[in-house]
């Protein structure tokens, strides 16, 4: 299946999926959306939690949907910030990697100004199946596998749930999938997603998540953050 590069309202690129007929990111701004949903509401929020509780200095992330690599890229850039005092181990699942031809067209490093294009290329060119060190504080493992078939004994501090919307991939928004993700999280772990549908939040709650609707990115009133509570 082919994908078409499109420009969103903040100037950054997204892809129109030929298979699903929807875009990978918000038409109001791909970078804006990813920063809001996954970096600010997810990564930075979880880091603040860990600092408050004086927990380990390594943040373990599971991403569902590598896609264009934008969420990985933003997390990688976060890790090389002078103010960052923690390591990131990042696992990303993807069943349909995008082509090199598409990768070369994406303009994220240009839109992010000081970002290094070589780091973005490294995300897509590194081998699959094993952790690869892309920066001093950042390791990435790409897994060519669906969430349904993904099996691991690892535990994660944070899940970026960036699957296509329930209308496109309904099987990824059902209770068994949320149970699987809940089981993958450490106590206190966080899941963030752009989706705020009532049934999705009910499915999350049914497996034990504490669910909160928080303000969404531009063009979207609300998003969802779900937490696995600390054991008493």
Protein model, in words:
The chain is α/β, with parallel strands linked by helices and 232 residues long. The chain has a single domain (29-227), classed as Rossmann fold, CATH 3.40.50. The protein is 30% helix and 26% strand. It is built from seven helices and ten strands. It has an eight-stranded mixed sheet with strand order 5-6-4-3-7-8-10-9. It has a two-stranded antiparallel ribbon with strand order 1-2. Helix 1 packs across helix 2 (70-79). It starts with a strand and ends in a 5-residue tail after the last strand. The mean pLDDT is 93.
Write the layout of secondary structure elements.
Layout: E1 3-7, E2 13-17, H1 30-52, E3 58-64, H2 70-79, E4 87-93, H3 100-103, H4 108-111, H5 117-125, E5 132-135, E6 138-143, E7 156-161, H6 175-184, E8 185-193, H7 198-206, E9 210-215, E10 222-227
Parallel strand pairs: 3-4, 3-7, 4-6, 7-8
Antiparallel strand pairs: 1-2, 5-6, 8-10, 9-10
Helix content: 25-40%
List the total number of helices. 7
CATH architecture classification name:
3-Layer(aba) Sandwich
The biggest beta sheet reads: 8 strands, mixed
Question: Nearest-angstrom radius of gyration?
Answer: 17 Å
* Span between termini: 48 Å
Structural class by helix and strand composition: alpha/beta
Shape descriptor: globular
CATH C-level class is Alpha Beta
Number of E-state strands = 10
The side-by-side strand order for the widest beta sheet comes to 5-6-4-3-7-8-10-9
- CATH homology-level superfamily: Vaccinia Virus protein VP39
Report the uncertain regions: none
């Amino acid at each position: 299946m082919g994908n078409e590069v499109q420009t969103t309202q903040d100037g950054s690129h997204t892809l129109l999926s030929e298979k699903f007929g929807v875009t990978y990111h918000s038409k109001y701004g791909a970078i804006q959306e990813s920063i809001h949903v996954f970096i600010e509401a997810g990564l930075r929020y979880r880091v603040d939690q860990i600092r408050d509780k004086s927990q380990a200095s390594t943040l373990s992330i599971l991403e569902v949907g590598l896609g264009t690599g934008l969420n990985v890229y933003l997390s990688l850039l976060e890790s090389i910030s002078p103010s960052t005092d923690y390591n990131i181990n990042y696992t990303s699942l993807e069943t349909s990697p995008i082509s090199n031809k598409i990768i070369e067209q994406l303009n994220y490093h240009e839109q992010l100004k000081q970002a290094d294009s070589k780091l973005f290329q490294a995300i897509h060119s590194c081998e699959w199946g094993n952790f690869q060190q892309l920066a001093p504080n950042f390791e990435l493992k790409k897994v060519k596998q669906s969430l349904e078939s993904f099996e691991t004994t690892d535990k994660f501090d944070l899940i970026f749930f960036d699957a296509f919307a329930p209308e496109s991939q309904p099987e990824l928004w059902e209770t068994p999938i949320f149970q699987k993700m809940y089981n993958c999280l450490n106590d206190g772990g966080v899941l963030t997603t752009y989706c705020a549908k009532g049934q999705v939040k009910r499915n999350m709650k049914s497996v034990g998540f504490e669910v909160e609707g928080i303000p969404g990115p531009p063009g979207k009133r609300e998003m969802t953050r779900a937490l696995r509570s600390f054991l008493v």
